[in-house]
Amino acid sequence: MNVRDATVIIAHDGKRGDVMLNRCLLSIPSVCQVFVATEGDVSQARNQACEKADGKILVFLDDDAEVRDGCFEELLAPFEDPQIGVVGGVNLPFEGISLEEKVGATLLASPLTMFKSAARYERKGNIRETDESEIVGCVMAVRTLAFNQVGGFPTDIIPCEENVLINRIQQLGWKVVYNPFAVVYHRRPKVFLEYSRAIFHYGKGRGMMMRKHAGAPRMFWSPNRKWLYYVAGFIIHYLSYIAGVIWGWFKGE
Q1: Which of 114, 146, 196, 243 is 20 to 30 A from residue 173's alpha carbon, by CA?
Q2: Can you give the pTM of this predicted structure?
């Protein structure tokens, strides 16, 4: 697929103003058709914008994301396979962020906190087939045909609307691909209050998704013996170390 085949849909939150939006717009290849979705809630706005789209591929971005060079080419390349319905990339933190944002970035990119979904926030592995748990809505491309077949984004759930969309597309037999070389830069929530609010918001969306949408009662990961050993070993490691430090401080000779 050529970049000219893409229509870009940007979800714009008016509360953030136009500074970040303008930076996002300037980073998009000039040959692309672009719509800024502002009317109604985010899903309704994007669905309405998609009705006007001419592109064979819909590229979804957030207004506070900045596209890195080569991102669109990487997002579109897998669509040469006619069975591909969705391609997702990675959103990395901006350079020069504050310490509070760096902590948030580290937590989001860690498998210990985000499990499989850490791949959304840091490059993990190579191009591969995946599911919604590794795809994030701020850097996501969807084949227009597949998008229309499922009726667009659901309008009864925010956030996790893109997760429901991807599940529905995958259930129709389309493939979902993760491409760690398709990169945008995106801000990170500051610890502790802003980060806690963001994670609570994501958790709420996941709970709504599990309750409202059949076939989607999946969390970020599936427990298995490897993970149980890993988590138990992590806990035992630090408990043993801390116990040793305390013993050495008070009783060691």
Answers
A1: 114
A2: 0.86
